[in-house]
Design goal:
This is Response regulator. Pfam families: HTH_18, Response_reg. The chain is an alpha/beta fold and 517 residues long. It contains 21 helices and 9 strands.
Amino acid sequence: MQNGKILIVEDQPNFRRGLVKLIEDGQHGWHVAGEAANGSEALDMLDCLQPDLVLTDIRMPKMNGIDFIAELRQRYPDMLFIFLTAYRSFDYAQSAVKMGALDYLVKPCTEEDVRKVLAKASSWFREQAEQRRNDMLRLRREQAQALRCVLLNLPCEQEMTAVLDEALCGKELWLLRLGWEADPNLIAGQQDIEARHAAVFGNLEQRLYQADPASLLVAVEHSRLLVAAEAELDEASVSEAIRCSLDPFPDISFRLMRMGSAPQAKHMAGIYTRMNKMAELEEAGHKKAGQEAHVPADAVIDPERVRDLEVRISGILSLGQMDRLRHFLEDLTVPIAGMKPRERSAYAAAVCAALQSVRRQLGIQGAGQTVTDPSALLPPAQGESATIRWVKDRTERFLHDYRSWREAAHSGSLLDKALAYIGERYMGDCRLADAAAHVRLNPSYFSVWFKKETGESFTRCLTRLRMEKAAELLRHTDMKISEIAITVGYNEPNYFTNAFRQFYRQSPKEWRSAFGR
């Protein structure tokens, strides 16, 4: 991680030069971005320098340190600052603490004093930078998941669609379709395929981030991805980033299709569907006349068909519509009529694979089998009637096991487990994805299910619990507000104060004064 930028505000030239010389050796995690002789000069430099830390004297001409920091906090409320003073006991010290100073140095101070304060500031700065990075990554993951739900017409919280509309405003959308020249669908190599998919996605995400840090890459379906990038990033740049990311995979081709400026989230599914249909029609036109589009059942399963079925089933489950699920599963036998033997076998095996995938995502136990070899489950020579019976048997098993699982979930056992997890982890890094994994649910399904069961979103529930715990500590203890912030899961006291004020319409200090013991 690069050293942080520091601005030194000190009216005594010799002392200021001494600080610069001490800091510039690079051993303390900082480099001097600028110097100022008073608060007025420093204010003029803030917007240009954008420092990470301000080291400022209090007693200065024109504008003292207290007034300077008060103005700084208006512009940059999260910026770190340290006060310098020539007095050990003075009224300014109380103001410094109230204003949120990380620390203060009493002049004259030794090099060791300065090193300790800078080391403390560096540790805080790096922790906050890591926290911001993690928050940014988490937000990107949530945005990608929400965008995937929107594109596939799956349930998505309204607050997330609003976040999407804001995040995608002004961006261009691109549909990326990957083609595998070698056959990647062999069942025996499924783990290798998933590893290759992950590697391709990771390479592509990194390249796009280098070209546009605000870009967003979403794996929508098998071999179908969506790229959201700034309008300034032209097609040549996007194509180059994709081409470079696919260099280690010479057997993978790609097609990039511009979808245009990002519309509102509610319109994206229709555009995505039309673009894919257009691409499929064009690709079908290039196939040789008479070529049959079937999958040998004794060797492979079509992963796109599996993924399509999985998405459709998961969407219905997210809505909790049992009648719709039953009708959908019953209708899965309809396409079998008229299929050729090998295509029929491949379709049946794909249905079974999709059901198994949904079972794994939700943690549904039951009598279903794991697909490892379609020829063992359904011989290619099996007739049409037998195939229909075989598929019907699998779908009925799934429906039975899902009903049992759903009854257990509605009985409170899963919800109690999820709430207990939040209650145990709220004071640290408590994420929706981890809570979903704890109860063995898919994150997107968990999000919808949790809100339906509790009446509030996961984030709202976590925030409420943290605020209630904080209020208890404010009322019944003498702990410092910064200590309470850390205790209830906030590393940054200022962020905690803002969250508390939004929740209770009072600052922690005001709340303690009104309700404390």
